[in-house]
Amino acid sequence: MDLLMAQFNVGHMSLDDIKSVLGADYDTMWDQKLKLKFKIDKNGKYFNEKLDNEVTRRRKFTASRRRNLKGKTPI
User: The whole model's pTM is what?
Assistant: First the structure.
């Protein structure tokens, strides 16, 4: 969960970022379990694809709400 929150807040992460987030749990968790849940982008940074898609979807939705709000005339 910590890695997902970090990705949500800062975007794709380097392996050093991941080590920093996981701390002492890095050695036991990353290679055995968590690495399988992340992909590598063209810059060599790790990301969870589902979270990436949700962040993009949310940004598009909030942008559309802002556009709709700007188009409204005050009552």
Answer: 0.77
Residues 2 and 75: their CA atoms lie apart, in Å, by 45
**Measured between alpha carbons, how far is 16 from 27 in angstroms, rounded to an integer?**
13
Q: Report which DSSP code applies to 38.
A: -
Integer Cα distance of 60 and 54 in angstroms: 10
Q: Is the pLDDT of residue 36 over 90?
A: yes
Residue 27 lies in domain: 2-71
Q: Please give the tally of structural domains in the chain.
A: 1
As a 3-state breakdown, the chain gives helix, strand, coil percent values, each rounded to 5, of 70, 5, 25
